[in-house]
Amino acid sequence: MTQKIGIIYSSVDGQTKKICEKLCAHFNDQKIEVELYSIETFNEDILEFHTLIIGASIRYGKHHKKVYEFIQKNIIILNQITTAFFSVNLVARKEDKNSANTNPYLIKFLNTIDWKPDILEVFAGKLDYKSYPLIDRLMIKLIMKLTGGPTKSVQPIEYTNWKKVDDFGLRIQKSLETK
Ligand SMILES: Cc1cc2nc3c(=O)[nH]c(=O)nc-3n(C[C@H](O)[C@H](O)[C@H](O)COP(=O)(O)O)c2cc1C
């Protein structure tokens, strides 16, 4: 069986894509074949991959609707290979909300779909007030205020823990040895 890994991202402002690129670099370093796709353009035969990773960011409490559609459309095949899913959001900057068992978005997401990914993870995303249109900026400020985060910052704040991303890559790598 092929040992190829596929990574699909759903990313609005690029942070989830950046995490996927870091994973790609990790697999390239290990000489593991890997392909990266946007969920918008993915049109491959899923069975070509030993492991498929899907990474998606949260906006106003939800992953993009394309993520749900993709899973629904491919649920039978997804259950035939090794799969991994990770969510990227700002709530995950908090220690007590940054794991698969404690992040409310991931828990809710898994409860609304029939797919049971083999490997799960949550990463904190990026906060960049200056790049948001006014309404979004006000909404994020409100969310941050309610959750005790910074309500202003001229510089972007990247909460992503890159060591955690590498560890996730290692977990995926180990799964190649199992099935
Ligand atoms: C309009 C908007 C809405 C967001 N809503 C949420 C939210 O409800 N909860 C949360 O934890 N993070 C929220 N975020 C933070 C994003 O999940 C975070 O910025 C992430 O890094 C975005 O990833 P992406 O660049 O791959 O889209 C929001 C960000 C934006 C810009």
List the helices and strands and how they pair.
Blueprint: E1 5-10, H1 15-29, E2 34-38, E3 51-59, E4 62-63, H2 65-78, E5 82-89, H3 104-112, E6 119-124, E7 126-127, H4 134-146, E8 157-158, H5 162-176
Parallel strand pairs: 1-2, 1-3, 3-5, 5-6
Antiparallel strand pairs: 3-4, 7-8
Bound molecules: flavin mononucleotide.
Task: Describe it.
By secondary structure, the protein is an alpha/beta fold. It has 2 domains: 5-125 and 160-176, 3-Layer(aba) Sandwich (Rossmann fold), CATH 3.40.50.360; 127-158, no CATH class. The chain contains 5 helices and 8 strands; from the N terminus they run E-H-E-E-E-H-E-H-E-E-H-E-H. Strands 1, 2, 3, 4, 5 and 6 form a 6-stranded mixed sheet that branches. A two-stranded antiparallel ribbon has the order 7-8. The longest helix has 15 residues, at 15-29. It is globular. It starts with a strand and ends with a helix. Flavin mononucleotide binds at residues 11-16, 57-61, 88-91, 125-126, 132, 136, 140, 143.
What is the string of SSEs from the N terminus onward?
EHEEEHEHEEHEH
Which stretches of 5+ consecutive residues score pLDDT under 50? none
CATH class of the largest domain: Alpha Beta
Instruction: State the secondary-structure class.
Output: alpha/beta
CATH fold-level label of the largest domain: Rossmann fold
Count of DSSP E strands? Answer: 8
CATH architecture of the largest domain: 3-Layer(aba) Sandwich
Shape: globular
Helical amount: 25-40%
Q: Helix segment count? A: 5
What average pLDDT do the residues reach? 95
Q: What percentage of the residues does DSSP assign to strands (E)?
A: 15-25%
Biggest sheet architecture: 6 strands, mixed
